[in-house]
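Internal tracking record. Fields below are filled automatically when a chain is submitted to the structure queue. Please do not edit lines marked as system-generated. If the sequence contains nonstandard residues, flag them in the REMARKS field before resubmitting.
Queue: standard
Priority: normal
Entity type: single polypeptide chain
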Amino acid sequence: MPASFPFVIDESVPDGNTESARLLDDRIREVKAWYNAMFGIPQVAMQAAIGSTNADGTFTLSKGLVLFNVAADPTFAGQLQRNGARLKYNDGSTAQNLAFQSDIFLTGDNSEPNVNSIATETAMYTIGIPGGSLGTAGFLHIYVEHFILSILSGSSLQLRFALGGGVFYGPSIFNSTVGTVTNVGVNTHIRLNARSSVSLQNFAATTIIGQDNVLFNFGNSGQLTYHRAGQTNINMSGAVNFQSNALWSLSSASNSVSGMGVDIVKTR
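SYSTEM-GENERATED OUTPUT FOLLOWS
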């Protein structure tokens, strides 16, 4: 049977603070310390502190695991290591980013609030974004869907989006037709990324109208897609609210919009 190193070597055994000519206890402890330092064999005290090993070789970790930042991708198949804020795994052909739950879905709301017959700005969604979600180099994608049940001729609907209480994006949809328009979907996508600071962000936003009538648009004939980009300076080290509000230009029973849900996704 081939020889192997032991799982642990306890440097504190045998006990004793003075040299025994018969037991050579000091010399034995010195040899154990040398083996531990040379081969990286843990002591019993260390083994008990971090976890335990079963007879089948399964290791159970009882403490948190802190990975050293190698600051490089793994280079050989099966290698797992940290590169900055990412955990990377080499699958034999390339280094893959390992996805975390926070990288997929952060928060959202699938309720369907309604705003109608009122010419006052009204909150539809208020969603808390956890502090530190962007960090200093992160990206968030916010998807908001609305459904215009009806909009009166000559009316407009402004969708107002706020972060930390400040409105940063507000497309207005106009009905310049001679009649009421009904059943129109409106999709908004907002990308938010940190600018090397928890208090500085870039945003790029797009809103699309699901209506082919050129007189139903964002203010220009045939304009069914609205784009804006800019910068915000919201301190996101702590939790902040994202808000989606609606504002009708006229108070009318024919002006009605419903929310269809919000998803906020962290991608980096």
